[in-house]
Amino acid sequence: MSVNGKVIPHTPLAVDFWQVRKCPGTRLFFLSHMHSDHTVGLTSTWSNRPIYCSSTTATLLRLKLQVKEKWIHPLELDEPYLLPMDDIGKEKLTVTLIEANHCPGSVMFLFEGYFGSILYTGDFRYTPSMLREPCLRTHTTIDVLYLDNTNCDPNRTLPSRQQATQQIKEIIRRHPNHNVVIGLYALGKESLLVELAMEFKTWVEVSFVRMQTLKALELPDVFTTEPGAGRIRVVEQSKICSANVHKWDKEQPTLAILPTSRPLVSFHPNVHVVPYSDHSSYQELEDFVSALKPTSLVPIVGKHVPASFSALLPHRKRHEILVPECVRHYMLSQPKSQLSSSANTSPRRRHFQPLLPKGVLFDSPVRGAGKSGEEATEPDATEEEMDAEVMRLYQMTYTVVHI
Fold first, then answer.
1. What are the tens digits of pLDDT across the range 225-237?
2. Which of 31, 81, 182, 333 has the smallest count of CB within 10 Å of its CB?
3. In order of start, what are the domains of the chain with their CATH numbers?
């Protein structure tokens, strides 16, 4: 599985990137949301480095991956927090979490520090209300925008999620005597399920594993694990195949619905692909970039965005970045293994009021290694790659970087 995360150059920061041996200078790790392509390499054995995320993601992190409590630092949305970028308290950054409108717990990160201002969207579905967030409304310049470019194709149009939801409702209404099977990933589109349950006044049948997640999210009580209790049933997307559709239809007339922005083609008259997306459309991305006018743009998925986006940038020069010596030493030092060391990287609000981790520790099976492509991790860096990275860090003393 591809790794949809980044190490932020010339800083000790990484977002959704967990290959520690490939980024030996990284000390502060941020998790935008709990989709598996953003947690590749993050396991229950994670240690010595703090993870910052939303409160909802923190709950799912304990539930799904059993990461130890002492490394998880949940932050509230729309609150600026100060984090240390060295061991002596001299250099700090401000981070603000912004709702990403993608899946439960998903956030964007606004980083501000000696490096300027960086907005990292993670996966997101743009809405104009995002621009009214205080931290973006009052901020005049975004130096670097890390952009979720999943659907960045000018030749594809996507309806809003409200429009896609109406399409799904109409399909179900046209088949009043059919059961409905909906194919989803492990996390996401819960609001769609709740809306369908309310609209058609039925329970939504889910697996025990999914129910565990739904309970942790404290969603409305419309879900059940009892077979046959409701007209609507949720399965993993991969379960919607010819053999299963034939089997379900033989037992009871059944519709299968795939709410996804992936360009899939239906293989059966009773299989309906609906372009319901939790990622921004091309037009939404264009509106977002045009409104923010960042100095530079970095795609999160792959290495390219359409050339038309370049015309939206103001073509101003990025200011020179001075990497402080205390930050360089911080990146070269070895993380401390004692619990007390996490106090050095505890989040503090602007007024230095400590925010303690919250949540309940859940018991769940540890993910097995090598079970499926969804859980696979990339190999560690070679010793040569590590040596090269350490040498690069040594050369960063008061380095002036032009980006």
1. 999 999 999 999 9
2. 333
3. 6-153+281-401 (3.60.15.10), 161-274 (3.40.50.12650)
